[in-house]
């Protein structure tokens, strides 16, 4: 059951997640993690619910990844700001670039994921 789901849905899920996270390699890792979670809970999974379960798991893992990336960007911003106070112009450009990247990624999320992300 999981093998056939992997063959049937893997590429579709990778493309879906890649649109959210804008990183193909990360999208592949997220989809692989979703399949691993499915393997872990294989006992209670019905064949007709596999597709929806994978879709939901991938969506949640992508949101988690984006949240983690946001925190990392914030840490990078603060580290950069305080480590190089004398280079304020360069620092302002870097901060602006990071904010643009974050906004670009957040705008790709579904409305519900975007709301949860913004509230966090």
What do these coordinates show?
By secondary structure, the protein is mainly alpha-helical. It has one domain (2-119). It is 83% helix and 0% strand. It contains five helices and no strands. The protein has helices at 2-21, 24-40, 50-83, 88-107, 111-119. The radius of gyration is 18 Å and the shape is elongated. The termini are far apart.
Quickly list its features.
single chain, 120 residues, mainly alpha
Summarize it.
The protein has one domain (2-119). It is 83% helix and 0% strand.
Spatial separation of the terminal alpha carbons: 36 Å
Number of E-state strands = 0
Helicity range: over 70%
* Helical stretch tally: 5
Radius of gyration: 18 Å
Largest beta-sheet details: none
Principal-axes shape call: elongated
Secondary-structure element order, N to C: HHHHH
Which runs of at least 5 residues are low in confidence (pLDDT < 50)? none
- State which percent range the strand residues make up: under 5%
Question: What number of structural domains do the residues give?
Answer: 1
Overall pLDDT metric: 83
Secondary structure category: mainly alpha
């Amino acid at each position: 059951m999981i093998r056939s789901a992997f063959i049937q849905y893997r590429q579709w899920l990778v493309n879906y997640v890649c649109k959210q996270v804008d990183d193909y390699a990360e999208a592949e890792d997220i989809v692989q993690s979703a399949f691993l979670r499915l393997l872990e809970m294989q006992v209670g999974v019905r064949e007709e619910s596999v597709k929806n379960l994978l879709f939901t798991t991938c969506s949640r893992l992508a949101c988690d990844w984006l949240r983690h990336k946001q925190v990392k960007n914030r840490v990078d911003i603060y580290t950069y700001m305080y480590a190089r106070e004398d280079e304020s112009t360069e620092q302002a450009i870097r901060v602006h670039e990071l904010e643009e990247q974050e906004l670009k990624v957040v705008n790709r999320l579904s409305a519900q994921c975007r709301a949860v992300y913004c509230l966090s």
